[in-house]
Amino acid sequence: MKSDIRVCSAWRERHDRPVYSLSSECPDCGGETENSAPAPFDPEDRYGEYRRALRKRQS
């Protein structure tokens, strides 16, 4: 799934907090932006079973 919301790729070096935009250019520094969506689900995740079990025990 591709997100329309993008974040400045250099926000850690140039800004105090993440700068979000809908364009391919950062509105504050003019730098390039990147997709802000999380990494895709990996069905071959070796530790997913343990992570889900831990989450289930905590709730």
Please give a structural write-up.
- Strands 2-1-3 form a three-stranded antiparallel sheet, with no helix packed on it.
- The two termini are 28 Å apart.
- It has two helices and three strands, in the order βαββα.
- With 59 residues, the chain is an alpha+beta fold.
- Helix content is 25%, strand content 14%.
- It has a domain at 1-37.
Provide the descriptors you would attach to this structure in a database record.
59 residues, alpha+beta, 3-stranded antiparallel β-sheet, 3 strands, 25% helix, 14% strand
Number of strands: 3
Tell me, briefly, the overall form: elongated
**What would you call the structural class?**
alpha+beta
Uncertain stretches of 5 or more adjacent residues: none
How would you summarize this macromolecular structure in one to three sentences?
With 59 residues, the protein is of the alpha+beta class. Helix content is 25%, strand content 14%.
Can you lay out the helices and strands and say which pair or pack?
Elements: E1 6-8, H1 11-14, E2 20-21, E3 33-35, H2 48-58
Antiparallel strand pairs: 1-2, 1-3
